[in-house]
Amino acid sequence: MADKPFKYISGKVLYCHDDRGEVGREYFTISKDNHGFRTLRARCEIDEDQLLRDVVYTVDKHWLPIDAFVRLSVGGAFQGTTWYNFSDQMVECEAITKDAGRFSQQQKVDSWPMAFGAHPVANDAWGCAVFDMNNKEERQHFKNCVTTSKTPHGNTGPNITMTEKFLSFHGNEELSVPAGTFKTNYFQLSWDSDVVGYDWPPIHIWTYSDDFIIVKIRWDHLKSDYLLDSLEIT
User: Fold this and answer.
1) How many domains does one find in the chain?
2) If you ran DSSP here, which 8-state letter would residue 201 be given?
3) In a structure prediction context, what are the per-residue pLDDT tens digits for the chain, which is 234 residues long?
4) Cα atoms found within 13 Å of the Cα of residue 110, Cβ hemisphere only
5) What CATH number is given to the structural domain containing 36?
6) Is 1 inside any structural domain?
7) Is residue 159 domain-resident?
8) Cut 0.85: pTM above it
9) CA distance linking residue 147 with residue 55, whole number of Å
10) 177 lies in a domain?
11) In a domain, 61, yes or no
12) H helices then E strands: how many in the chain?
């Protein structure tokens, strides 16, 4: 029997506030083909913002962005829908948003973007994959990054917003969450406040396996934990 052409990972993440308990959730599916390309499909719900985000995002075997689609509703109503394409010369999108209407956007780049942040927390875990483990004692700087929005919940746009980030590695931890106990890699994501415009504390990210599956994220800025609630790998 021939090998299956795709590997599938699916799961659910709980968004848990320190004081208010569960305030949202995320359902995700990841497919991986025989060439190492991965596609994330995520549905994100944030209750207090009446926010619904649908994301389809593909990376190559080096975890570099290929293309993406993001549809966003805020306040229970349409906010925007945007298609993205990435190359070593250009980031481009075709968008319709409540605030700007129909537009095309192009951003020239001098190298392939290192990461794309569409705001699913499963996507945040993927963002750690570009960290060079051969230099794991270093706090590594990634200049050529793209996000859909610079707000904490990603509730604007979606459009092309260039940004930068730092990643640092803080060792291996065995971590228990509702989905079970996992051997994780622990990273911290941080920014230069002059670049992002905010003085935010770092985001703590624990990932599982070389698929960089989210196990837990902690962000003190939102007083929230994001916990893997279920996981299936087929």
Assistant:
1) 1
2) P
3) 457 889 999 999 999 999 999 999 999 999 999 999 999 999 999 999 999 999 999 999 999 999 999 999 999 999 999 999 999 999 999 999 999 999 999 999 999 999 999 999 999 999 999 999 999 999 999 999 999 999 999 999 999 999 999 999 999 999 999 999 999 999 999 998 877 777 899 999 999 999 999 999 999 999 999 999 999 999
4) 1
5) 2.40.360
6) no
7) yes
8) yes
9) 13
10) yes
11) yes
12) 2, 15
